[in-house]
Amino acid sequence: MKRIAFIGIGNMGWPMAANLVAKGFDLAVADTDAARVARFASETGARAAADAADAARGADAVVTILPTSKQVAVVAAAAKPAMRAGALFIDMTSGQPGATRAIAADLAAVGVTMLDCPVSGGVSRAKTGELAIMAGGDAAALDAAEPVLRAMGTSIHRCGGIGAGQAMKALNNLVSAGGFLIGVEALLIGQKFGLDPALMVDVLNASTGMNNSTQKKFKQFVLSRRFDSGFSLELMVKDLSIALEVGRDNAVPTPFAALCREMWAAAAVSLEPGEDHTGVAKLPERLAGTALGGGNA
Questions:
Q1: Which of 18, 107, 130, 267 could in theory staple to 125 by disulfide, Cβ–Cβ 3.0 to 4.6 A?
Q2: Separation of alpha carbons 4 and 18, rounded Å
């Protein structure tokens, strides 16, 4: 595993691909934004590929991190004729397990093995190479992919067969999304009562109410009013929809998860286009008639 094609150099993909270059991999990059590809190649020394097929030609592995499985399917179809038998297709998108299984079956027909390896940790941990990676697929293929994955993450969790990593990622984001919303509501209740929201966050972080949002989101992106974590509200709604799809496919009742997803979806419709996912706090603020930190919602 030395020659890598990397498709998708967005907010997460750019630092992940940069870490592969830094770890000595021979990288070719492609993206729909040609100017971004040229800038990445200039800054890192990677090769700027004309398209996915150009990047994939002769590669030991193709790595994708794209918005949805629909884009992954397009890239896989484009790269397939250029890929050699025995190569790996490592999808790090937070995608749909069912769609991924269909793509994997299509690639297997030409001797290419697909793995699904979505990530958690956000842009900050993508930059430091400390992502958590949830992996699904053939064990031997995962063994072969391990050096590539280790260049981008420090925690690799083998979740099962193809699609298992993406199912786990969606369920992780469901838990995260639920914790964020209930935390914002608690802060609004406390503020109405007369508690300082920043103090509440400190107390939660010293108590059993602590979670990822209390530690890494409320002060940093909500109370600061920055709302710029680097992960979009639209993508969070997509991940929650995938989690519910997994629940439906396995006949699991999900009343609370469904309500959580509907709240996030309502925020995506009612807030500005392109809103950061931490901006979902504005919806319960509007319902309460006040913004955290004071002022009108």
A1: 130
A2: 12
> Which residue in 22, 38, 30, 7 sits closest to 127, CA to CA?
22
pLDDT tens figures, 140-166 = 999 999 999 999 999 999 999 999 999
The tens digit of pLDDT for each residue in 114-145 reads 999 999 999 999 999 999 999 999 999 999 99
Pairing of strands 113-116, 88-91: parallel
Instruction: Check if the beta carbon of residue 127 is closer than 8 Å to that of residue 101.
Output: no
Region at 112 (left for phi over 0; alpha for psi -120 to 50; beta for the rest): beta
Backbone angles phi, psi at 265, to 5 degrees: -65, -40
Length, in residues, of the chain: 297
Number of other residues whose CB lies within 10 A of the CB of residue 120: 19
Beta bridge partners of 90: 63, 115
Please tell me which residue in 2, 23, 80, 169 is annotated as part of the active site.
Answer: 169
Measuring CA to CA, which residue among 213, 116, 202 is closest to residue 167? 116
Asked about 217 being catalytic, the answer comes back as no
Please provide residue 113's backbone torsions phi and psi, each rounded to the nearest 5 degrees: -100, 130
- What CATH homologous superfamily does 167-288 map to? N-(1-d-carboxylethyl)-l-norvaline Dehydrogenase; domain 2 (1.10.1040.10)
3-state secondary structure (DSSP) of residue 155 = strand
Q: Domain 3-162: give its CATH code.
A: 3.40.50.720
The structure tokens 């031997």 sit at: 140
Residue of 88, 118, 134 lying closest to 231 (CA atoms):
118
Whether 167-288 and 3-162 are alike in CATH topology: the answer is no
Judged on CB neighbours under 10 Å (0-12, 13-18, 19+), 157 is: middle
